[in-house]
Amino acid sequence: MNYCVKIAYDGSKFYGFQRLNELTSVQKVLEEALSKINKGEVTIKGAGRTDRGVHANGQVISFKLDINISTNGLKEALNSLVEPYIYVKEVKEVDDNFHARFSVLKKKYIYKINLGEYNPCYSDYIYQTDYKLDIDKMKEVSKLYLGVHNFHNFVSGERDNSECIVHEINFREKDNILYIEFIGKSFYRYMVRNMVGAMIDVARGKNDIDYVKNALESDKEINIFTAPSCGLYLENVEY
């Protein structure tokens, strides 16, 4: 049986989503738990390979089990093995063609920035900058990202193709926290964090908007500030 599972996790407790040798990763913990339940090795596929320190409220994984188990039974069994830093929110049976990564239509990421006084309780979960930010300038920069672009200067590592489409970028503030929402089909490694970093540098006066335009349009390598991983959340995946 093929399963689709929605999970949340505290990224500060893991070396990223993807299995990496013997280091503690979200994938490693889930696969070990599922292998116990299945009494046989299980490999999972994730909708997104979040980096070390990046959180999730709506990550999706898919996998196949050899045993017969109800969705409620699987949810309870998994949570008993992976809590407290991973939580299974929903379990569904899906057809054999479903793949957590390749079946994605849209992803939503949210980046959180504390605009108020420093709070040590936020240190692993919300980015806290020492600079006063001009939010209107951040919104102006965000409009440059919309549509189809080659984001090669906003992506970490070598790729044959860094082109993708960003459908929406939305801003909201609540209790001195700025929430920046990114919606698109594909976001490559460090891409959202670099998009936020470029907005921050313009908003604090370090760079102007032409610097970001050039980073999007130029074939030359241009350095971009990478916003810390603590503020980033994979919020939702749409199929």
Q: Ranges with pLDDT <50 over ≥5 residues? A: none
Number of helices: 5
**Number of domain units:** 2
Count of extended strands:
10
Q: Residue share in helices?
A: 10-25%
- State Rg: 19 Å
Largest sheet report: 10 strands, mixed
Shape: globular
Question: What is the averaged pLDDT score?
Answer: 96
Note the beta-strand portion.
Answer: 25-35%
CATH H level, superfamily name of the largest domain = Pseudouridine synthase I, catalytic domain, C-terminal subdomain
What gap, in angstroms, lies between the N and C termini? Answer: 19 Å
Reading off the top of the CATH hierarchy, the class of the largest domain is best stated as Alpha Beta
| H and E string | EHEEHEEEHEEEHHE
Give a description of the structure:
- By secondary structure, this protein is α+β, with helices and mostly antiparallel strands.
- It has 5 helices and 10 strands; from the N terminus they run βαββαβββαβββααβ.
- The protein has 2 domains: 2-94, Pseudouridine synthase I, catalytic domain, N-terminal subdomain (Alpha-Beta Plaits, 2-Layer Sandwich), CATH 3.30.70.580; 106-238, Alpha-Beta Plaits.
- The protein has helices at residues 26-38, 71-82, 135-145, 191-203, 209-217; strands at 2-9, 45-46, 55-64, 86-94, 106-114, 127-128, 147-150, 163-174, 177-184, 232-238.
- Strands 1, 2, 3, 4, 5, 6, 7, 8, 9 and 10 form a 10-stranded mixed β-sheet that branches.
- A hairpin with an 8-residue loop joins strand 2 and strand 3 (55-64).
- It is globular and about 60 Å long.
- The chain starts with a strand and ends with a strand.
